[in-house]
Amino acid sequence: MMTAIDGAPTGVIAYRAVGTVTSDDYAAILRPAIAAAADSGAGVRIVIELGPDFDGYSAGAAWDDLSLGSKHLAEWRRCALVTDHRVLADAVRAVGLFMPGEVRVFPVAELDAAMAWAAG
Question: How is the chain split among helix, strand and coil, in percent rounded to 5?
């Protein structure tokens, strides 16, 4: 499940993954938020936290994650992953080399820094 992170800077999409993230989370939450940010003209700036309450992705959600921003590639500005999960952090760093915009990984303890960076 994805829950909004309170206190995100204006223009930053910020969600926390809790439990298992499913395709429904992408369809109901992330895709509409990304589309709205892309349509605003300000670009997509997103923070996703995969903290200690994150259990993983369903098979469908894993596929959705790979294609998440493909419709709005030109509008991606900054993507921050906030996690202490080393394998996920390394995977995002690798994929980030091929993504438009900037991608950074922050430890969970630095959520505020991730928010500030995404807003910048």
Answer: 45, 30, 25
